[in-house]
Specification:
It comes from Pelomonas margarita. This is Nucleoside hydrolase. Keywords: Glycosidase, Hydrolase. The chain is α/β, with parallel strands linked by helices. The protein has 12 helices and 11 strands. The strands form 2 sheets. Strands 4-3-2-1-5-6-7-11-8 form a 9-stranded mixed beta sheet, sandwiched between helices. A two-stranded antiparallel sheet has the order 9-10. Helix 1 runs parallel beside helix 2 and helix 5 crosses helix 7. It starts with a strand and ends with a helix. 55% of the residues are buried. The model has no long low-confidence stretch (mean pLDDT 98). The structure holds beta-D-ribofuranose (BDR) and calcium ion. The site of calcium ion has 7 residues, from loops. Beta-D-ribofuranose (BDR) binds next to helix 1 and helix 6.
Length: 311
């Protein structure tokens, strides 16, 4: 089994990613670390606990991380996710307690305790916790197998400014430090996640599952897709974060290219832009595998089959 740590700011799409990971026997979910992003930290932490409880996974530690980006004020996205971050269905107060370890300590300790080159980090929100861990313990860089993250965009432009995707925009300095860390990176940018759309037919198939998770996920998707449906006039919204977990499970669902990627941290106009050298015009070495296209039907077949395994 592939050991992973998910760093997250749930978020309906983060929640679906957590469920997909929790339901997949190929993955060993070592822990979930929370970060401020879509909503403030106390809510992302509460939401992560609710989602693991829903999945029947009280065994997974939830560790609380950074409450703000490294050096800019927090920007949140209630206009997309609702005031709780997880609008669409009211889940009960979870029994699962918060782990006493700080997220950054948990990441460092876990990487040091496990055999080097085995643990994959899966950041689904701003990269603050990952950057803090790399700052505090530079030795972990060589111990991380790979960072598989949702963030950035190139062909599709941005979703929070014309240039920037939300996760990178919120903490551009953290993203810069991660992209220059030397750790192997796979990134799922908007270019690929905008192909993975929650159409009515796909949601119906999930709602029809004979478990509670099916109804909950369908309700989340219906709330979440409204923002993009109104904005882009399409059927369905993008299921960003689950692409990270789907790539771990079935990389063949995606096409990709190894590229040099740099993050803009200074410019007011293009803050948080991921400058992806898709055409290799700079001659700079590739530092990330950039996902480009997805087999969306294959993705939803996998997701639906796995969600069916949950309570
Ligand atoms: C990313 O931002 C958040 O709103 C989503 O959870 C996803 O991680 C998409 O830009
Ligand atoms: Ca997220």
């Amino acid at each position: 089994r592939q050991p992973i740590i998910i760093d997250t700011d749930p978020g309906q799409d983060d929640a679906v990613a957590l469920l997909l990971a929790a339901a997949s026997p190929e993955l060993e979910l070592l822990g979930v670390t929370t970060v401020a992003g879509n909503v403030p930290l106390h809510l992302t932490t509460l939401n992560a606990r609710k989602v693991l409880e829903l999945a029947g996974r009280r065994d997974v530690p939830v560790c609380v991380g950074a409450d703000r980006p490294l050096d800019v004020p927090l920007v949140t996205a209630e206009h997309v996710h609702g005031d709780t971050g997880l609008n669409g269905v009211n889940l009960p107060e979870p029994m699962l307690a918060v782990d006493p370890r700080h997220a950054v300590d948990f990441i460092i300790e876990t990487l040091r305790a496990r055999e080097a080159g085995t643990v994959t980090l899966c950041p689904l929100g701003p990269l603050t916790n990952i950057a803090l861990a790399l700052r505090r313990a530079p030795d972990i860089a060589s111990r991380i197998k790979r960072i598989v993250l949702m963030g950035g965009g190139f062909f599709e432009g941005g979703n929070v400014t014309p240039a920037a995707e939300f996760n990178i925009y919120v903490d551009p300095q953290a993203a810069h430090e991660v992209f220059t860390s030397g750790v192997p990176i796979t990134m799922a940018p908007l270019d690929v996640t905008h192909e993975v759309l929650t159409t009515a037919k796909r949601i119906d198939a999930i709602r029809a599952l004979p478990n509670r998770v099916g109804a909950v996920v369908a309700a989340w998707m219906e709330f979440f897709e409204r923002y993009d449906e109104e904005k882009y006039g399409q059927d369905g919204g993008p299921l960003h974060d689950p692409c990270v977990i789907a790539w771990l499970l079935q990389p063949g669902l995606f096409t990709s290219r190894d590229c040099n990627v740099r993050v803009e941290t200074q410019s007011e106009l293009t803050r948080g832009m991921t400058v992806i050298d898709w055409w290799a015009v700079t001659g700079l070495p590739a530092n990330a595998q950039v996902l480009r296209h997805a087999d969306a039907d294959g993705f939803f077949a996998l997701l639906t089959e796995r969600l069916a395994q949950l309570p």
